[in-house]
Amino acid sequence: MASTLLHLNALIAPSCPTEESVSPMDIKQLWLNAQDLWGALDEHPLLHASLGLLVLLVVALVLGRVARYLILHAVKLLGRQPSLHWLNDLRHNKVFHRLAQMTPSLVIQFGLYLVPDLSKTAILFIGNVALALTILFLVLAISALLNALLDIYARTEHARTRSIKGYVQLAKMVLFVFGAIIIVATLIDRSPLLLLSGLGAMSAVILLVYKDTLLSFVASVQLTSNDMLRVGDWIEMPQVGADGDVVDITLHTVKVQNYS
């Protein structure tokens, strides 16, 4: 009977699951295998550089998400204070969102030099593209800041009589023109002054293209400086079918709410 029980125990014992602990030797061996695999990539520089760029891109995207969450969360908490209520205007116009979008391109700019086996030509090209993206998001952030300032001004007493929307639109137009010049100069790795000198030679064409905009700006300045027209004034222009109150004054148009 005893020999039968021992025989059954011997048959059952191998089928029972056992807990195995990971020894430090296994971790060390795994680390050595990873080092051998990474060292083997030295024989394939292109694959080595591609893998390094992929890791850098993933790290940049992750840090961008983290920066966006931290910035927006901090601004949301600060915006609850009455004295910092203006931060909500910046947040609603996505000023901080645009600034957070600069994080991945900045990480790529400074992390390119850590990528192994990456040629100087590739570093220059990718660095210029990343710098151009940084400038693009900076321009968009400044544009969003101008929109936020316009919203803040709209709640003041002066906004009822004097509109600054035309000036903001002109500032945004100049911002986008100079931003485009700097971005193109960065991509082609040339000085922005070189492109600006080329624009100087095309000044006649530029004046022809932006003739209406310049005339509208001059008219807007005259209306505002001479206090000839305010928001809330009643005007009547039968030739264009306008007969009502002025509700908005922009760079190119004057909006009138007609009487029914």
Give descriptors for this structure.
single chain; 260 residues; mainly alpha; 2 domains; 3 strands; 67% helix; elongated
Task: Provide a descriptive summary of the structure in words.
With 260 residues, the protein is mostly helical. It has two domains: 48-155, no CATH class; 160-260, no CATH class. The chain is built from eleven helices and three strands. It has a three-stranded antiparallel β-sheet, with no helix packed on it. A hairpin with a 4-residue loop joins strand 2 and strand 3. Helix 4 packs across helix 7, helix 6 runs antiparallel to helix 7 and helix 7 runs antiparallel to helix 8 (165-187).
Low-pLDDT parts are: 4-20
Topology as H/E string?
A: HHHHHHHHHHHEEE
Radius of gyration: 32 Å
- Count of structural domains: 2
Kindly report how far apart the N and C termini lie: 110 Å
Helix content: 55-70%
Q: Can you list the strand order of the major beta sheet?
A: 1-2-3
SS field, number of helical segments: 11
Helix-and-strand structural type: mainly alpha
Arithmetic mean of pLDDT? 78
Taken from the alpha-carbon principal axes, the silhouette is: elongated
The biggest sheet amounts to: 3 strands, antiparallel
Percent of sequence in beta strands? 5-15%
User: How many β-strand stretches?
Assistant: 3
